[in-house]
Amino acid sequence: MKNPLLLFSLLFFLYADTSFAQQSRAERLLTEIQRQPASTAAVDTLVDTAWEINFDEPAAAQKLLETALAMAQQLQYEEGVGNVFSGMGTVADIQNDLQKALDYHKQALAIRQKTKNLSAIAGTYTNIGNVLESMGKKYEAIDNHHKGIQILREIKDSVRLARAEVNIAGVYESLGIYITATEHIQEARYLFEARHDETNLASVYNTLGHIWYENEKFDAALPLYRQALALYEKNRDTAGIASTLGNLANAYDEWGNSKNLPDTTKKAAPLYLKALDLYKYLDDSSGIAKTYNNLGIMCKHMGLYQKGLEYLNNAYRIRVHLDEIAGVMEVYNSYGDIYFGLKKYKISLEYTQKYFDIALQLRDEKYEQKGYKDFSKVFAAMGDYVKAYKYRVMYDEMRYRRLDENRSREFIRREQMYADRKKEDALKRRELELAQKDAVLSRNRATRNGLIGGVVALLLLTALFYTRARLRARSNQQLAAKNATIERARKRADELLMNILPEAAAAELKLNNAVKPVRYESVTVVFTDFKGFTKIAEIVSPEELIAELDMCFRAFDAIMERFGLEKIKTIGDSYMCAGGLPVENDTHAINAVEAAIEMQRELKRLMAIKAAEGKPVFEMRIGIHTGPVVAGVVGSHKFAYDIWGDTVNIASRIEQASEPTRINISSATYDLIKHKYHCEQRGLVAAKNKGSIEMYFVHYED
Question: Which long-range contacts (CB under 8 A, 24 or more apart) does 344-353 make?
């Protein structure tokens, strides 16, 4: 403030003059401002007051800002003009006039770039990014968030940097770019924990929960959402509580639906209704619409289609009124699902096309991928299998392009990196404290010994040289150790590449920086899945859960080597492998069945040990199918050897139709192994989206 006496006068009249008792705070301030000569202090006071009341009284805040703008322009007070436009952008955003908000923020940016106020410029980029995200222009939002983050790093503003990292992580998460989202949100988590900032940590836990949720690991998302809810409740943040209740409800609903657990699905309803009440209390139309949409989806899962349509109609009306194009896309997606459940396939197809068109317009890959899957599902139900197959192939190609087979492992690795970073910082702080103590002691010794003769001074000087020599030697040792670490890392990188890819594919990748896809006419694909693993996930810690999977999958990896099969990937608690590639052979079907038998035996042995220890156990289903596939390497820097084709999809369906402890095979595999193994014919068994398939159980001795 350039005129503190004027400011004191304004505040005195604002709060103390009883002649204004019947006026609002904004009206009292405007009345008093008109009595005073124009000044930069008056502009700043108007802007500050507008910021304080913008959520509760946006119209009054706008009047204050309009007065401030006229005064700032009259005074040629450019910094004030920039602050006014920024405030106007925020008010327009609150009133959901997104285009006007964007225009105001861009005007603020132009002025702030002239005044070279880096902190204000970074804040404006963040504001523009938030508005663009609300408009559905997520890639443009990311570009602006990156610009703001770069400036905040340069000026070392860790508080605002942490908030900016949360913003950009949320956009990446909404686009399904989960690894990048994790990088940003863990950076924010680190910064917030360093400041013990509980309120913002809650948003971090929510975003981490979203990442697990979007990867269909709903049981892993739940504890993160609960952590966020506890912090919001502790700080009495009503908006945060409402949002997190909805997140918890989503996780319960999807988990119950995916695992066919009706009691889990029912836990969602009271949470949704509580969130809806809070959003109504807050008069948050967007939150109300989001909750109605989620209630509609829940009703679809429960088969309550008409009730679901009522909720969706409410959501659609609000989102159209708010001009939330991304929200309208979500509602169209939900309409399509409900009409599919009602077997009204033409209407379902119309809504699928509507939300797919918006996804392409917004460049929203997550909903574009959903569209391909829904097109395939609807066309198959309508009997148009040619189109259904075409869209299924497009879905699989996009899914495998976007899916990092090691995503769960990567998230856990990043958690470990985060923990290591905290330990490293603690060591650095300890070293700094010791260095500071040493410096204090050195100064005290120098003062005390300053009167001692030259001999003592010479001894001290000698000691100093000796200390420096030791430090130099220690630095050289540390440098040598780092060089050795780098060399080990290089060797480890080669080992990891050979571990991730088949030997021939790894060699081709290192030579040509690419691997050509190869078609195999006869490959046997094996899928496994655990029964009872979900219940274990509910009662053990994440560390124990990962240890359980690691124990089983390490055993399976050894079996793959013994029987000459190629491990393809793990997805959650599912294990996928194949025989007959990358080196073709005539025994792949027998090898696959022998490996499957050994896997069942090994799992039974491991579970017997756990049962003896009083720990919960689980069983495994296995499905096997033989046919043609295409194999290759996907990705440009996180390589993954994978296989594609209908053979893979059928093998997955056969696994789903299997039973615990059993090995279920198709007729194609049966024809190749029937001379060696006795099998039980099951006849034609229904398989999701594949009609009926001839299946057999392989008989084997435990």
Answer: 345/378, 345/381, 345/382, 346/382, 348/374, 348/378, 349/375, 349/378, 349/379, 349/382, 352/378
Q: What is the DSSP letter of 18?
A: G
Q: Are residues 621 and 562 in the same domain?
A: yes
SS3 of residue 697 by DSSP = strand
**Prior bond of 582 cis (ω within 30°):** yes
Give pLDDT tens digits for 291-335.
Answer: 999 999 999 999 999 999 999 999 999 999 988 899 999 999 999
Do 490 and 542 reside in the same domain of the chain? no
7/30 Cα distance (integer angstroms)? 13
How does DSSP assign 315-347, residue by residue? HHHHHHHHT-HHHHHHHHHHHHHHHHHTT-HHH
Q: What angle do CA 396, 397, 399 make, to 5 degrees?
A: 60
- Looking at residue 419, its amino acid is A
- Final residue before a domain boundary, out of 500, 533, 566: 500
Range of the domain at 436: 412-444
Radius of gyration, alpha carbons of the chain: 32
Cα separation, 441 vs 451, in Å, equals 17
CA pair distance 130, 432, nearest whole angstrom? 39
Tokens found for residue 113: 């770039």
Exposed e or buried b for every residue in 33-59, given b needs 16+ CB within 10 A? Answer: beeeeebbbbbbbbbebbbebbeebbe
- Tell me whether residue 16 is exposed, middle or buried, using C-beta atoms within 10 angstroms of its C-beta: 0 to 12, 13 to 18, 19 or more: exposed
Domain match, 526 and 664 both: yes
Q: How far is CA 602 from CA 51, 293, 557, in A?
A: 65, 46, 12
CA-nearest of 340, 343, 344, 331 to 373 is 340
Distances (CA, A) of 245 to 199, 228, 509: 16, 10, 47
Question: Of 584, 568, 587, which Cα lies nearest the Cα of 528?
Answer: 568
| Range of lowest pLDDT (356-365, 394-403, 428-437, 554-563) | 428-437
Whether residues 461 and 432 share a domain: the answer is no
117 Cβ contact list (under 8 Å, min separation 6):
79, 82
Is residue 592 domain-shared with residue 637, that is, in the same domain? yes
Q: CB–CB of 233/275 below 8 Å?
A: no
Task: Judge contact between 536 and 616, C-beta under 8 A.
Answer: yes
User: Backbone phi, then psi, for 621, in 5-degree steps?
Assistant: -100, 145
- 448 pLDDT more than 80: no
466 and 591 share a domain?
Answer: no
Separation between Cα atoms, residue 387 and residue 414, nearest integer Å: 41
In a domain, 649, yes or no: yes
In contact, 161 and 195? CB cutoff 8 Å:
no
**What is the spatial distance between Cα 606 and Cα 392, in angstroms, rounded to a whole number?**
38
State the total domains in the chain.
3
Q: What is the pLDDT of residue 321?
A: 92
The predicted model scores a pTM of 0.46
Cα–Cα distance list, 308 to 144, 296, 297, 335 (Å): 38, 4, 7, 9
Element housing 32 (H / E): helix 25-35
Domain check: are 529 and 460 in the same one?
A: no
What pLDDT digit, counting tens, does each position of 500-540 carry?
A: 666 666 656 655 555 678 889 999 999 999 887 777 777 77
In a domain, 640, yes or no: yes
DSSP 8-state assignment for residue 19: G
- Asked if residue 557 belongs to a domain, the reply is yes
What is the CATH classification number for the domain harbouring 598?
3.30.70.1230
Q: Are the C-beta atoms of residues 51 and 87 closer than 8 Å to each other?
A: yes
Residues 527 and 665 in one domain: yes
Tell me whether residue 440 is in a domain. yes
